[in-house]
Every structure is written in C-alpha cells, then in structure tokens.
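Board notes (copied after class):
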Amino acid sequence: MVEYFVKNLKMHMYPVPSRCTVRYTKEKRYKFPPKGYEKCDKCFRLYK
C-alpha cells in the first residue's frame, strides 16, 4: 500500500520510486496525501 511523506515542502510517495532522487529518512508517513504541499514531479510522474 502506498503512503506519503513530506520532505523539503514536497509530498513524496513511500516506498520511494527509483526515478525519484529523494530518500526517506524517518519522516512522518501519511495514509492519504496531505493537503497544502506541492507534489514531487518524479514520484507522481508529472514531468514530460
């Protein structure tokens, strides 16, 4: 099951996809996407 965490004011997926350069370092995890944060382009495939 996918969870989410916030690092550097961006929301990332956990487990972190290999295409993302951010590493999870014990940040708080959320079951649902937290509001008020920008989505990571690489985790959420927002890049073209």
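Comment from the instructor: Strands lie at 3-7, 10-14, 29-30, 38-39. The chain is about 0% helix and 30% strand.
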